[in-house]
């Protein structure tokens, strides 16, 4: 059986990679993929703690988190399509004209 610490280290590494992607990328698709990576890291954390403590609460929360991630992707793709239509690019620094 794999110890829970390995899952937590994997989760921390995935979260750090996702955070690095959010802080350094300008492409909206890569930004969205980084957010999904961070959500998956949280899911791994929940499942690891559920495994360690022997109850199913973490796995149930993971199912809710997967539904949240699917909704977030649907909204994110819609926003990316609007960005591409209006600016012919998916660079997140371009739409500064949409501010007040």
UniProtKB/TrEMBL annotation:
One GO CC annotation: NADH dehydrogenase complex
Entry's EC annotation: 1.6.5.11
Coiled-coil annotated residue ranges, if any: none
Predominant subcellular localization, coarse grouping: membrane
Any one biological process term the GO annotation gives: ATP synthesis coupled electron transport
One GO molecular-function entry: oxidoreductase activity, acting on NAD(P)H
Stored InterPro entries: NADH_UbQ_OxRdtase_chain4L/K, NUOK/Mnh_C1-like
Keyword set, alphabetical order: Membrane, Oxidoreductase, Transmembrane, Transmembrane helix, Transport
Protein location: Membrane
Topological category with respect to the lipid bilayer: Multi-pass membrane protein
Membrane-traversing stretches: 6-23, 30-51, 63-84
Enzyme class: oxidoreductase
Protein family according to the UniProt entry: Belongs to the complex I subunit 4L family.
Name the record gives this protein: NADH-quinone oxidoreductase subunit NuoK
Source organism (scientific name): Halorientalis pallida
